[in-house]
Amino acid sequence: MSSQAVSTAVDYVDAPLLYKGKVRELYDLGEHYLIVVTDRISAFDYVLEPPVPEKGNVLNQLSAYWFKLTTDLIQNHVVHTDVEKLGSVIKNKELLKDRIMVTLKAERIDIECVVRGYITGGGWRQYEQNGAINGISLQEGLRKNDKLPEPIFTPAAKNDVGHDEDISFERMQELVGGELAELLKAKSLELYAFARDYCDERGIILADCKLEFGLIDGELILIDEIFTPDASRFWAKENYALDIEIDSMDKEPVRSYLAGTDWDKNSQPAPLPGHVVEETTRRYQNIYHRLTD
Predict the structure, then answer these.
(1) Which residues pair with 166 in a beta bridge?
(2) pTM passes above 0.85
(3) pLDDT tier at 7 (50, 70, 90 boundaries)?
(4) How many CA atoms lie within 13 A of 214 on its CB side?
């Protein structure tokens, strides 16, 4: 993998830029999309400096790996990940070779499909307040990080600006229709169960995940990214405990560093120190190798 950090691919791609997310950039190839995964890193809704070397490579390669593993469960949007097939569209093939994905043009369903197998994070905060997550009542006496009796489906309505909004399944049915809502729920739970068991064999707990789906000619397919550290909460089994903040296998070094500074969370933070960037790169590489080796 190329270790040069990439904060944007705009100078290296000869195609129109359609959308620039916090991490991903979407280019129009005509029949298909080109997704380039950069090394930008965000926390608390801010894109931080500097970018984290290898992060985009890991996210893209890991998504491609999972997409292949799950094709028997559901089709996905991947056409190929071969930079050579793009010819002159890519001006620096060596730099971008591990961070590109050519995809089908699906109609995105504006629902973030979240599955929780453990009660932690925002789900725990909801439970503490009212004993429920997204309107799903849970048994009393659960502790932070407890494994749920059964995984639960807790969707969110996508907002391109600001936070996605947690919604009940009933609200999701109103937004996308009952039949599609049921299918999304079933597929999300099936995918989570597959990945949970796969991770379990490798000493990793998949606490929760978010999935995105689209439609092509009325057929449901999986899009975006899948079971990456940016879209899933991975815990090393050896770190698992109740009632604590478990050090998750992702950009936790960045969050921990920022939480320990006097940054007000209302303005662009100062650049991250080198040791935080290096540790974050190491985290992403570690989860990649634990899942794929």
Answers:
(1) 156
(2) yes
(3) very high
(4) 15
